[in-house]
Amino acid sequence: MGIIRSLFPLILPPSFFQTMHRYLHGLLLFLFLVFVAEPARSTFMHPDVHHRPVQSEKASRTHNDPILLPEGTIITLELYETVSSKNRRAGDLVEMGVYKAYMVGDKTLIKEDAYAEGKVVLAQRRGVFGRPGRIVVAAIMVHAVDNQQITLIGRQIDPPGDNRRMLAWGGSVLLTLVAAIALVATGSNPAIALPLLLFGLLVSGKEVEIPAKTKVQAVVKYDTMIQP
Known about the structure:
3 domains, alpha+beta, Lipocalin
């Protein structure tokens, strides 16, 4: 400052140099506070700020993020018990388990052997004139790895029964005709043979059952976020 003042005494007044001196002093103080004092204060107040395992936290968040189980996902189950038209009613629950785990990448959303439930949709005992029993079962729910109950739309299992209607009706008609012909031949009233039409009452159908280990397919009803 003294050199400049000696070279330009007429151009620059003394007050200018005093102002410049104060300005430079303030600027140096500001730079000291910003680049030296404040970082040191931050480090003192938060000593771990530069030592946080940023990558580990990110990986942890990624590991714990929920994963979408989409609507329409096919889940394969199997029956844990035999279901028969003989002793079941519509609305009864049926125990099932997951036959094959469902995974997204390396994350399991539904474990193998996870508990599941089905429901008897229709149950009908066998009847006369050869009518077979009927039993219809569908899956309704499965447990995910985070214990959520996932609602399912099950594909109905409806095995065919042993239909003996033809035997019952055919036997009734045939016996009645044979008896009527015999009665006509002996001069008797053929109407006596009409009660033989009830032969079918003696012929009942068979019960139907779905054995344990039968595979059942179902689809996820709603989009669901699962915590693996």
